[in-house]
Fold this sequence. Notes:
The protein has 142 residues and is an alpha+beta fold. 46% of the residues lie in helices and 17% in strands. The chain has helices at 5-21, 51-65, 69-78, 80-89, 121-134; strands at 28-32, 38-43, 100-104, 110-117.
Amino acid sequence: MTLTLQDALKITDGAFQASNDQKAAPLTIAILDTGGRLISLQRQDGASMMRPDIAIAKAWGALAMGCSSRTLATTAEQRPAFMSAVTSLAEGNILPVPGGVLIKDHQQQLIGAVGISGDLSEIDEQCAILGIETANLLTDAI
């Protein structure tokens, strides 16, 4: 399965609905394919100007390392020199904080990633997971 624009928009709609339900701050949602290419980037009204870069870095880092950005945050705490080196190798395109989540199909095949920025990282991550679930897709995020 390939992640389509329609899938990306369903994920975005679900994530924005979750953010509205939680009364989150304005979010920015980036959805990337498995090659790290942008499929969709949406900003809610009032989202600050750095949010697109942050959302993309969360998703890109998840894809690049094959795990959620929450897992990367744990790695950064446990192995700061390693994560610093990886971030440097990635030219700053990895952001090891929650909010970047892998997207999988029903055969558990990786098809992309979503990165969300705008509120607390935990809320960003919750909205990403709910968006993926709304699109009837899977993730391995905790």
